[in-house]
From TrEMBL:
Its main location: membrane. The chain crosses the membrane at residues 36-59. One of its GO terms (molecular function) is glycosyltransferase activity. One of its GO terms (cellular component) is cytoplasm. Keywords: Carbohydrate metabolism, Fucose metabolism, Glycoprotein, Glycosyltransferase, Membrane, Signal-anchor, Transferase, Transmembrane, Transmembrane helix. The lineage of its organism: Eukaryota, Viridiplantae, Streptophyta, Embryophyta, Tracheophyta. The keyword Transmembrane helix applies. Pathway: Glycan metabolism. This is O-fucosyltransferase family protein. It comes from the Eukaryota. Signal peptide: none annotated. It is a single-pass type II membrane protein. Belongs to the glycosyltransferase GT106 family. GO terms for biological process: fucose metabolic process. It comes from Rosa chinensis.
Length: 504
C-alpha cells in the first residue's frame, strides 16, 4: 500500500488525491478513460479517422472500463466484509483499502519510563495510520520520576522510524510551518485520550476534533488503546511499529551488542529484571524484608510524589495477592526451585537494588556469577549514557532480548514488552514468575510445612506453562488492567494457535 500523496503517472499527468467515496483504482481508470478520449479526438483530427472507427474503439474502452469497475467493486466489498467480521463490535468505517486523505496532524507527549513510552508510541502509530493523520515524532517524558532529558532521536533511530513506516503512515520530525504559525496565533488543542479505548472512540471522538482544529495534541499515550476487540490490521500495525520501526540509535545498539558479545564469550546467561529499586518499592508500598528505617524512608518518598495516588498500603496483604515484586531472597529460592544452573551468569537488568549488598547476599550465594553492565564495561563506555536512565534501560532491553533466559520479578512495562518481543523473535524462554503462588509456597517452606523437594516440585508444576511458549492472550472483559496486555502476547502477529482465546 502506498499513500496517495505520492504522484501516480497517468498518460504523462499525475494524481495527488481522489474523489471522496471513490476508490483510488476506480479514479485512475476514470482518468485514463477521459484522457483516452482527448487523445483520440486529437488523433481523429490529424489522421482523419472515420467517425464509426472512433465510436467502435470508444465502446470497447467503455466495456473494458465497466468490467474493471465491477471486478474492483467486488474485491473492495469482499475486503469490507472481512473487516466487518473482525471488528463486528465497532461501528467505525473501514480505512483499510489503501486510500489516503490527510485529515490533520497528531502531536503526542509520551509519559512514563522507556518501555511505557515505547508501547504508547506504537499505539499512536496505529491510531495515526487508521485515522489518516500525520504523526509528528513523539515528545518523550522529561518531567516524571526518571528525569531523563533525552529526546526521541537520542534513544531511537528517528530516520529509520520514519522510513520504515513510510508506506503506512506519514510521520514528520516537526510540525509544518503553516500549522506552527496557526497554533502560535491561536492555541493548541490538547486532550488525554481515554484509557483502553477501541477504535470507535478514535473515529467518533478524536477524528472530529482533528478535523476541526487540524492539529491535535495528546497529553498522554500510556494504555490508550485496548488490548482486545481491536481489528487485526490495527494490531499488526502496533507490531510493525514495535518490532520493525522502533530501533535504538547506533551508539546504543553497538554498546548493547558489545555487552551481549562479552556475555556470550563466557557462556549462557540469564537476564534477571530484578525490579527492586527504591522507586518501585515506594510506589507499590511493598516492604517485605525492609527494616523500620527503610519502611519510613519508602513511605516518605511515596507521599512526596502527588501523582502517586495510592498512599496508604497494606504491604502484607498486597504481597499475598501477588502484587508485589519478588524480593532478591524470594527470587533466589524461586530460581533454585526451578533447577536453574547455579553456574549460569545472571545479568541484573535494573537500577540500584534497594538495600544494596545486604539484600543481594542470598541471591549472590545461590548464583555467584552475578553481573551488570557496569561490571562488564569500562567506565568510559557508559559515560555518554550516564544521567540518562532511559538510554541505560535501552541497553538492558537489548541484552534482555538476546539472553538465553529472561526472568522478570514483577509484571511492569519492561517485563511485558520484552516478553512479547521475545515471543515475536521465536518464543524465546521467558520465565513468568507467578508471584502469588511463589510467596504462598515460600511462606510454607520457611515455616517447615514443605520440604525442599516438595517446594521445588510445586514451583515447577506451577510454572510448566509459564516459560514463554505459545499461548492465547488472557482476556478479562471489562477489566483491562487485570487481563494480559497486548504487548505481553501479541498473538495477532504470531503463528496461529488452534485453541480458543482464554477468557475469565
Amino acid at each position: 500500500m502506498h499513500l496517495q500523496w505520492r504522484p501516480v503517472a497517468l498518460f504523462g499527468g499525475s494524481i495527488y488525491s481522489h474523489t471522496p467515496g471513490q476508490s483510488p483504482k476506480n479514479q485512475q481508470w476514470h482518468h485514463r478513460y477521459m484522457r483516452a478520449i482527448v487523445h483520440l479526438a486529437v488523433c481523429m483530427s490529424k489522421l482523419y479517422l472515420s467517425f464509426l472507427t472512433v465510436i467502435t474503439f470508444l465502446l470497447c474502452i467503455k466495456i473494458f472500463k465497466t468490467y474493471v469497475l465491477i471486478v474492483n467493486t467486488h474485491v473492495v466489498d469482499h475486503h469490507q466484509q472481512q473487516h466487518h467480521h473482525i471488528s463486528s463490535s465497532s461501528s467505525s468505517p473501514s480505512h483499510f483499502q489503501g486510500d489516503y486523505v490527510n485529515n490533520g496532524f497528531l502531536m503526542v507527549s509520551s509519559n512514563g519510563g522507556l518501555n511505557q513510552m515505547r508501547a504508547g508510541i506504537c499505539d499512536m502509530v496505529a491510531i495515526a495510520r487508521f485515522l489518516n493523520v500525520t504523526l509528528i515524532v513523539p515528545e518523550l517524558d522529561k518531567t516524571s520520576f526518571w528525569n531523563d532529558r533525552s529526546q526521541f532521536e537520542d534513544i531511537f533511530d528517528v530516520d529509520h522510524f520514519i522510513a520504515s513506516l513510510s508506506d503506512e503512515v506519514r510521520i514528520l520530525k516537526v510540525l509544518p510551518q503553516k500549522q506552527r504559525r496557526r497554533i502560535e496565533m491561536a492555541s493548541l488543542y490538547s486532550m488525554p485520550p481515554a484509557s483502553w479505548s477501541n477504535m470507535t472512540f478514535y473515529y467518533n471522538r478524536v477524528l472530529p476534533q482533528i478535523k476541526k482544529y487540524e492539529v491535535l495534541h495528546f497529553t498522554k499515550t500510556d494504555t490508550r488503546l485496548a488490548n482486545n476487540g481491536i481489528p487485526v490490521e490495527v494490531q499488526k500495525m502496533r507490531c510493525k511499529a514495535n518490532y520493525e520501526a522502533l530501533r535504538f540509535t547506533p551508539p546504543i545498539e553497538e554498546l548493547g551488542k558489545k555487552i551481549v558479545r562479552i556475555l556470550r564469550e563466557r557462556g549462557p546467561f540469564l537476564v534477571l529484571h530484578l525490579r527492586y529499586e527504591m522507586d518501585m518499592l515506594a510506589f507499590s508500598g511493598c516492604t517485605e524484608g525492609c527494616d523500620d528505617k527503610e519502611i519510613e524512608e519508602l513511605t516518605n518518598m511515596r507521599y512526596a510524589y502527588p501523582w502517586w495516588k495510592e498512599k496508604v498500603i497494606n504491604s502484607t496483604q498486597k504481597r499475598k495477592s501477588g502484587k508485589c515484586p519478588l524480593t532478591p531472597e524470594e527470587t533466589a529460592l524461586a530460581l533454585r526451585a526451578l533447577d536453574i544452573d547455579p553456574s549460569i551468569q545472571v545479568y541484573i537488568a535494573a537500577g540500584d537494588i534497594y538495600g544494596g549488598e545486604r539484600r543481594m547476599a542470598s541471591l549472590r550465594l545461590a548464583f555467584p556469577h552475578i553481573v551488570k553492565k557496569e561490571t562488564l564495561l569500562e567506565a568510559s563506555d557508559l559515560e555518554p549514557f550516564r544521567n540518562h536512565s532511559n538510554q541505560m534501560a535501552a541497553l538492558d532491553y537489548i541484552v534482555s532480548l538476546e539472553s538465553d533466559i529472561f526472568a522478570p520479578t514483577y509484571g511492569g512495562n519492561m517485563a511485558r514488552v520484552v516478553e512479547g518481543h521475545r515471543r515475536y523473535l521465536g518464543f524465546r524462554t521467558t520465565i513468568r514468575l507467578d508471584r502469588m503462588l511463589l510467596v504462598n509456597l515460600i511462606d510454607q517452606y520457611k515455616k517447615g510445612r514443605l520440604s525442599w523437594d516438595e517446594f521445588s516440585q510445586a514451583v515447577k508444576t506451577g510454572h510448566a506453562d509459564r516459560m514463554g511458549s505459545p499461548t492465547q492472550r488472557l482476556e478479562i472483559p471489562g477489566k483491562p488492567k487485570e487481563e494480559e496486555y497486548f504487548y505481553n502476547n501479541p498473538q495477532e502477529c504470531l503463528p496461529p494457535i488452534s485453541t480458543k482465546p482464554k477468557r475469565l
